[in-house]
Amino acid sequence: VVVSWLAALAIFSLIVLVSRTPSAAEHTRADKIVKVKNQIIQSSRDGHVIVECKLDTPHDTSAPAHGILHITVHRSISPLASDAFLNMIKSEHFNGCYIFRVVKGFIVQWGIESPHSDGQQAKVKFDKVGIDPPATGKSLLNVRGSLNFAGGNSGTGQVYVNINNNPHLDKEPGSLPFAMLDDNSMEIITSVFDGYSAGMGQVKAVKQGADEVKKMFPKMSRIENCWIVNDD
User: Fold this and answer.
1) What is the mean pLDDT of the chain?
2) Is there a contact between 105 and 94 (Cβ–Cβ < 8 Å)?
3) Which residues in the chain come in under a pLDDT of 70?
4) What does the pLDDT look like over 57-73, one tens digit per residue?
5) Could you tell me the fold of the domain covering 48-118+126-228?
6) Backbone angles phi, psi at 78, to 5 degrees
7) Cβ atoms within 10 Å, residue 106
8) Cα–Cα distances in Å, from 38 out to 24, 74, 76, 82, 179?
């Protein structure tokens, strides 16, 4: 009888051991795994994204403005503006866009589509996303090399690069910059021809197409195409 009782006790103890709930240490380890996975997901959603754009001056082969622009998009700081910009890259909106506005010592601007060679109508309106709230201690300002939407919103599809520090633009309504160009890219940007004064008909020429730009503004540079290098 004693042997039978001991055998029953051993079997019961084994059942309890197998079916017990995880210990606190095991809960902690599981939580850490979940937490790490969440961090990876968060990093993928909010990390920096590298974009490259090929800039050229197609109607003046002797012009110095040509090369690859390297752009770091700071999605963690400005997720709304960043995603709007990246969606424009993915849709090839900037491909073939002339740099129609160049103000010496101030900004260069592009984003107006010319007529498409396949007959597709140029897009003139884009989704106007909300304004990213200021990220304390992290917000990009309108300093040399920063990239922002013209007018402070994505609705026009136009962007500008600050050639110099322009702190007065930080006070204007709308979005703050969401990306930065590196030093090599800024050398290319500052080599873009800046001799065409505002109001000479650049926008009209761009909307009419390459032939009109070549005739009226042969030194105007163009963003040939853009692509996403990495999207963490």
Assistant:
1) 82
2) no
3) 1-46, 118-119, 135-137, 231-232
4) 999 999 999 999 999 99
5) Cyclophilin (2.40.100)
6) -135, 75
7) 15
8) 21, 20, 15, 21, 25
